[in-house]
Design a protein that fits this description.
Length: about 350
């Protein structure tokens, strides 16, 4: 029985190098592309991302806007709303590959087999992931090794009280599809990625092949596989180093790993605490700073929740918030707008003694 490697790489719309539909569709040509082979590429799905958003969320967006009494709370363009926000990715991209340019080059028997296996993977991708709307799929044969780019929009369907009944959220999608987080290192996304890699391994086995693990592509390994490869590297390095230098280096690494382990243990065991704000602008400011600092939190109807170990940082952010001073005229104007929008007719706005 032979062996082939598998590659599964996830990218985000916010990173042009991680998800670039224009590049996938060859609307511009990078240096690593063989222009003579562009015509050999295969496009399976091609839908404009804005059109996909209108198809997916048009009805839910109209319903949401109809419930808003203030014009500034309405969303005119949901794609731009998500794209320019800081909570969700507008779309994602995965690059799927069986084999590599050395083992399965274009035109070879292995290359043809890998193309067949990619088709098998794509065939059931949508049924496995009902909450991922695939809007662009391209097989590239004009680069060093053949691979397929899959662009998709994650959408939840379980209605939310203060948001769209159907909207964008990768976390909610993974919840709906049954993926759960075990700890900080093994979150929902990791669980989903592993399940997709297992599908690729099953396809290999159906064709009488095993999965080849390549240390050079550790981003596609499981955590245990990566640790094993790193241990092997350390053993090899120790054999070639001076013994005293090797021991000193390993002691330093062990100290850093121990500190990181303690940090992760504290993070996992730390209870969650609720934060409430009477000023919406203050809540928005604090949450935006948490996103920048990569501090995990969960938004609630009246605020958000974060782990207790981050309380000190959150309190510091609260003190940094500087409210915008509003004039008495602006306050009066806001009150009048609110009263008018809540009134049924003109008489409701008039004073009682008129």
């Amino acid at each position: 029985m032979g062996a082939l490697s598998v590659s599964f790489t996830l990218g985000k719309a916010s990173n042009p190098k991680g998800a670039n539909v224009e590049h996938n569709n060859r609307e511009f040509v990078a240096k690593n592309v063989d222009v003579n082979r562009i015509s050999d590429n295969i496009t399976y799905v091609k839908q404009d991302v804005r059109e996909a958003y209108r198809e997916l969320f048009g009805e839910a967006l109209a319903e949401y806007n109809s419930r808003q009494k203030r014009a500034d709370r309405k969303i005119t363009d949901y794609y731009e709303h998500i794209k320019n926000g800081n909570r969700e990715e507008a779309f994602y991209e995965i690059i799927v590959q069986f084999g590599d340019s050395k083992i399965a080059p274009v035109g070879s028997d292995n290359g043809k087999l890998c193309k067949q296996m990619r088709n098998e993977y794509m065939k059931d991708f949508q049924s496995r992931n009902p909450n991922l709307h695939v809007f662009n799929v391209v097989l590239h044969i004009d680069e060093a090794s053949p691979h397929v780019h899959i662009n998709f929009i994650p959408f939840y369907t379980e209605e939310r009280k203060n948001s769209l009944s159907k909207g964008v959220s990768m976390r909610a999608v993974l919840d709906e599809q049954g993926f759960t987080a075990k700890n900080v290192m093994e979150n929902r996304l990791v669980a989903w990625e592993r399940s997709e890699i297992k599908i690729m391994e099953q396809i290999l086995k159906r064709h009488g092949l095993n999965r080849e693990i390549k240390n050079a592509t550790h981003e596609h390994m499981t955590v245990d596989e990566y640790k094993e490869s790193q241990d092997e590297k350390k053993i090899t390095a120790v054999k070639s180093w001076n013994t005293e230098s090797a021991i000193e280096q390993l002691v330093q690494e062990n100290s850093l790993l121990h500190a990181e382990k303690q940090k992760l243990e504290m993070q996992v065991s730390s209870p969650w605490k609720s934060f409430y704000y009477s000023v919406p602008e203050k809540q928005s400011y604090v949450m935006s700073q948490l996103v920048t600092l990569n501090i995990p939190f969960c938004e609630t109807e009246n605020g958000f929740e974060a782990q207790e170990i981050y309380v000190e940082q959150i309190r510091k952010l609260e003190k940094e918030f500087k409210p915008v001073k509003i004039s008495n005229r602006d306050t009066l104007r806001d009150d009048l707008d609110r009263i008018i929008m809540q009134s049924q007719n003109f008489e409701d706005v008039l004073p009682l003694n008129i």
